[in-house]
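the two lines:
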Amino acid sequence: MENKTVQTGVQIRSKAALVGRFCKSNLALVCFFLLLAFMAIVAPKYFSYNTFCSLFTSISAFGVIACAMTISLIGGEFDLSVGATIPFSTLLFSYFLPRVGLAGAIGISLLMGLVVGAINGALVGYVKINGFIVTLAMLISLSGIMLVFCQGLPIGARNPVTRRFGTGKVLGISYITFVYLFLAGLSEFILRKTRYGRSVYAVGGNYEAAQNAGINVRLVKMSLFMLLGLFSVISGIMMACRLQAGSALYGSDACMQVVCAAVLGGTSISGGKGSALRTIIGMLVLGVLTQMFSYLSVISYLRQLVQGIVVIIVLVMDATINRKK
Amino acid sequence: MLNTKRFKLLVSKYGMIIAMFLIIVVAAIANHAFLTAGNLLNILRQTAALGLMCLGQTFVIVSGGVDLSVGSILSLVGVTSVMFIPYVGLFMALVLGVVIGALAGTVNGVLVTKTGGTMGNAFIITYGMQTVLGASTLMLTGGNIQYGYKYSEYYKVIGQDSIGIVPISVIIFAVFAVVAHLLLMRSEFGRSVFCIGLNDEASRLAGLRTGRIRTLVYTICGALTGVGAVCLCSRVTSASPVQGVGYELNVVAAVLLGGTRLGGGAGSIAKTVIGVFLWGMMTNALNIVGITAYPQKIVKGAIILLAVLLDIGRTKAENEILAAGV
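prediction for all of em together
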């Protein structure tokens, strides 16, 4: 009899542990449903097909850069300079759109992103300077270049094609949402199914071991930053199309948000672990949070505060779980 | 062969100082006002606050971390110290402000320790704290500037007045620099800070209480940032809730410029003091030559990178000379 109760006790504990483990490994999903439940109580009208579509539209531009950030975090690197690359690409795109046409504007912006990424990547991968410092210096310098370029002013980008791309919808779902989901899927495919993806995990998990296994670790590190540059520009162009303008402020706060989303989605800051699809859920949590705050008309400072606290809590939780293991 | 190596070492060791010297010479030729006693005192006064913040940051960087929340701590301390004045008087308000800075630093330290104390975690935790503290400051003030001189006519004394010809804030900086030097370079605590910066695991196994030391390091950084904030806000007679936005970049840059190595285990207060003055001279020189704020950013970013590159070059050259057996 006594034995039996002990056994059920163990079973209950193991069930609780199972639920706990599920919550920990699917933190973003749990947060997402908790937020939705909260909204269901506070604002039942919130739930509609349109708000759901607009939720996706609102996260699309930052979502794209979140994909690249996830890949680079898995590879053990982190990029502060996206806070300058994204706004600079909105400005370049808007400036060159009426002057050299759509293809030219896209080309010039992409070139800028790749050059920035290549410089970052070469300095981190080959010269072996700490990635934080390289991208910090790049952030400062590039925002200087950007501000000299635009003199602090926004640049309008009026063009029927880009406008249609930025604001058009199919079945209520915006075009840019499709682009986002396609790129997220592509990132996940690259990570899971290609040789390159596996080497990113290897380099992030154990640099020395990856090197000994014959992976070109320097090139992988460099490629992470070039990917970030590329995706920053895509995200910037999406933003410029949607808002029909470029500005030094568009996307300048992206870095904190996308790192927050990636960490919420279970990507490890120390590298070697993560998934691009889960980052989507992280982005959704942040998106719902923003919509919730604007729905309840809470001041925007509070949103920043909550975002910061969420990052810190998730990091501390992640570290304590890992240490127990 | 060895001479070229020696030369490389010399260049990488003193390259930054040479570069700065060139900037100063150019500025002095371009504008005669640069090398006047008045302007030099002005530079000292302007950099005292930055210097205090850099002293704290040096502790953190030597311990193998980095504190990106100092900009927000600056805003928070500036604003709260003014808000306290009507309730507790000027002196106590300033003290309370510094205490708040120290507490913010303690929170940083505890969180960084909890997450394992690595560089990457320190970076992101303090980056998150920057957001949290910055938003709290904005919420606290509703976005309004707090005018210290409205509450107390003595508010601007620290930042603007002088004893003899030496500004009070510079005296404060000098005193804290000496104390920080003794603490970091001459005390047991200082040695343990170097130890955890060099090898956290080994220090822990050797019996050092790494968590406690790390927390203390971040607390010192918060407190010194608080003192810097008081000096800065006093100089401009008011505290803005966005005063410190982006300031952490200047602080980290000036410390690295001095030659303290990011990653921990190497550096000194003397280097930081040199770095701070070089940074102050350079900012002033750029202003005086007529380079505006936007292009200045480009130059500053490039200088941070150059400082780190030279540091790598120095390490390499030192190793080569050691390997040559001389």
